[in-house]
Specification:
- This protein is α/β, with parallel strands linked by helices.
- The chain has one domain: Aldolase class I (TIM Barrel, Alpha-Beta Barrel).
- Helices cover 44% and strands 11% of the residues.
- The chain contains eleven helices and eight strands.
- The chain has an eight-stranded parallel beta barrel, surrounded by five helices.
Length: 298
């Protein structure tokens, strides 16, 4: 079974100029760029890839075309989150049949069930696929996976991984102590999460600074902590900007804009996500300029 570890890029979705469909050649080119930079894995149909705004056919296309183009060059995690258990199972099976290395599933959302329902959801999915499942804790958007719930889920076969995007570093540390393999999903936690024992990062910023993200992980793996922190000081400004800025730019459009500015053209976000104002774009370019060897396209 595939072992998931390291820097996993939560891929942007490049749309065609009219915004109506996925630009497959750009998608394939972006995959190649990230793999050339040395990323350890890729997340297909990620939240950063505007998962919530994709049609079911588009989600399946991203997974199928992504796995096909990657062709075994790295592990792939396909997000198959859905409201109902049956729909999630259908998506999970399709991803497995497409050749994905693993799937990632948020708990039920919108009208979330009790803890019993959350456990039922994951346990039922785990019994229907034979690839690893990455549980996805994002309490701002779905039923929270508490420390207690996580402990119960870890006893179920095939539930060995979790991505924590709670934004609570204490919660992240509790997950690490409980066991399993914990990925961090908060950009500004990156070096501290890895030093604390996270197995890796599932990271939107990989789209525009893959070399730096991989280098950060490798330095920490080699216990070169001061070098890692020196690098982080150059990466941190943009990560903080993406998490909070005075222009009310959301994370998804910020990532896409930064990727465009650094030459990997992803196009515009899908409505209702709105592109950046000129003022916000200039400010984003300012923090991006702190990265080493930066060539901005404004």
């Amino acid at each position: 079974m595939t072992i998931l570890k390291g820097i996993f890029g939560a891929m942007c979705t490049p749309f065609q100029e009219n915004g109506k469909g996925i630009d497959i050649p750009r998608y394939q080119s972006h995959i190649d760029d990230l793999l050339e930079a040395g990323v350890h894995g890729l997340v297909l149909c990620s939240g950063t890839g505007e998962y919530a705004y994709l049609t079911d056919d588009e989600k399946q296309t991203l997974i199928q075309e992504g796995v096909k183009h990657i062709n075994g060059r790295c592990p792939t995690i396909a997000q198959t989150t859905a409201l109902s258990t049956d729909e999630c199972i259908d998506k999970a099976r399709a991803a497995e049949e497409s050749g994905a290395s693993a799937i990632m599933v948020m708990p039920p959302f919108l009208e979330p069930p009790s803890e019993r329902g959350v456990i039922y959801h994951y346990e039922t999915i785990a019994k229907t696929v034979h690839i690893p499942i990455v549980m996805y804790n994002v309490p701002q958007q779905a039923a929270p996976l508490t420390e207690e719930t996580y402990s119960k889920l870890l006893t179920i076969e095939n539930l060995d991984y979790i991505k924590d995007s709670s934004g609570d570093f204490l919660n992240l540390q509790k997950f690490i102590q409980k066991g399993g393999q914990v990925f961090c999903g908060i950009d500004s936690f990156a070096p501290f999460a890895l030093m604390s024992g996270c197995t890796g990062m599932i990271w939107g910023a990989v789209n525009f600074m893959p070399n730096e993200c991989v280098q950060l992980f490798n330095l920490i793996e080699k216990q070169k902590y001061q070098e890692a922190l020196d690098l982080w000081r150059l990466m941190e400004p943009v990560c903080l900007w993406l998490g909070h800025n005075k222009y009310d730019v959301d994370y998804l459009t910020g990532i896409k804009a930064a990727t465009n500015l650094l030459g990997r053209k992803m196009g515009y976000p899908r409505k209702p996500l709105l592109d950046l104002s000129n003022e916000a774009l200039q400010d984003l370019a300012k923090v991006l300029s702190k990265l080493p060897n930066t060539n901005l396209e404004i």
